[in-house]
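[SOLVED] Need 3D model of a two-part complex

Original post:
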Amino acid sequence: MPPYESLNYLDIDSLLSEEERLTRQTVRDFVTRQVLPVLQDAHRTETFPEQLISEFGKMGFYGANLDGYGCAGLSEVQYGLLMQELERGDSGIRSFCSVQGALVMWPIYTYGSEAQKEKYLPRLATGELIGCFGLTEPDYGSNPSGMLTKAEKVPGGYRINGNKMWITNGSIADISVVWAKLDGKARGFIVEKGTKGFSTRLMKGKFSLRVSLTSELHFEDCVVPEDNILPDAEGMKGPLSCLTQARYGIAWGAVGAANMVYHTALDYTKNRIMFDKPLAAYQLIQAKLAKMVQEISKAQLLALQLGRLKEKKRLQPHQVSLGKMNNVRMALDCARDARDMLGANGIIDEYPVIRHLLNLETVNTYEGTEDIHLLIIGNEVTGLPAFR
Amino acid sequence: MNIIVLIKQVVDVELNIRVKDGALVEDGLNYVISSWDEIAIETALQIVESVGDGEVTLVTIGPDQAAEALRKGLAMGAHKAIHVSDAGFDGSDSFAYAKAFAKILGDRDCDLIIAGKQAQDTDAGLTAGMLAEFMDLPQATNVTKLGQIAADKLTLHRGGDNGSEVIELSLPAVLTVNDSLYEARLASLRGIMQAKKKPLETLDLAGSGVDAATVGIAGRQTVIDQLVEPEARQAGQKFEGDEEETTKQVLDLLVNEAKIFA
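Solution:
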């Protein structure tokens, strides 16, 4: 295959600064060298390539848009490009860094005490510590405010009881940022691995995001010290604001996955001869390629505008919903078309297409399903919530 | 150990390069650090890291956009950079560049000057060698392995056609490196963000102290007349029909035309 280049049909590259392009190229080269070669095996064996954990840390991928505490201090567009290039490799790889940065480091950075920041952030930034984010429960996914996990004040700390499900990195995490109701209000708690009453169970049998570890978290009279409550988050705004950060990264990441399946489909159909000429010379194939070019170009502009708004601190959660919803659906459609264009080769893991397609089914579901984002946008434009 | 690395920004040869009317088509080109020069940066960083002190300074002569290459090198870990940029250098050849570098580097304190063994665009491989001559410094080209590093000398291997030479070189000296020496590191994201805070000195022709008569069209000894695209490869020949007959034909061509046994 020719060297990978992301689609630049509308000369989007000219909208990026030199530093942004260098960031993109650096992560792209890293993914080519260190991530792509291990994906097939990781995907087949349903394992996360653990050797990458410290490498990501050395490269500065964790909490990369935070300042201080050993974080890289990237701009929001640079951070988006990081997510884009990681997801060009695999959605599970991007998820690993997304969770660590947007769902663990960001809430500690935003809602944590200075002592919590100093204790955890530098070691999370290097990858010495791995974190996970516990919000979703077996019966509460799209409706997290209904959570049953409860915390109560006890002498010297808080006692937590409840269960979390679909938690990325749960069983390998050194710390979990867990959301539980204290006196009827959602609060965040940092639960360290090994705390009495806290256990995890790895969820096996996923047909999607197989490179990422997904777990259940169980809390049975689990008492965490007083210092482990996030002091500055009270109510659902806490966890939902974390999701806004992660969804922002996903809006960019999906562009990377779409680019990869487009790149693969373009190369494949230009070289695959059928009825004496390349597949790419047929109108039905060209229509699919043109559709991908159209949708990826729009998604690139959308992600970039979200980034520029975020840099000006003007980005609204409902705008992030539009980006996450559109870009992931776009990537999923590209992957489905690409799979079709590769024929039988579209279902085998010698090519990245089927892996991306399977992954994107998850990405379209987690962090707010496509339907929930439609309702968020509907609520925004009508002022009439239609969630229930 | 203070090290100066000479780098050159070149057209990314991995992407499509087109020639029209004897000149490069500039539109849509991407510029990168010549890959051998990236190895030179890596070599300098490895030496400074192993010795435990010293600085790596990058130097380039090139247009405004060449600052991008310097900033990438700074992001990889180099400490500072000098960008010499002036239209007066346009048209220079290796000889003129070597003269200019000799002048620019002449007063600077350094123990080693390192460059790639050639640049990725012209493949000439002349500048560093001539620079050593003009600065009256010992040199080793095509370095494939480093050995002992002391304050005043260095042992190294240099590649030849039929083996390698092991050389001891007194410092200061000029080295050019082979791509088998190291794999160039990627900049970390922290490195990219720190790069903009590192010193990048920009000099024009007058500021560089280089005599205008020794560079550009006035100072060059060679001229590139024109650029020509490589000839398109001929399509292969297909042999179809009776196996015994075609085997004979192929054998005949291999022996008598390709002369594979000659």
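Edit: Strands of chain A lie at 131-134, 150-154, 157-168, 175-182, 185-192, 198-202, 214-225, 273-274, 277-278.
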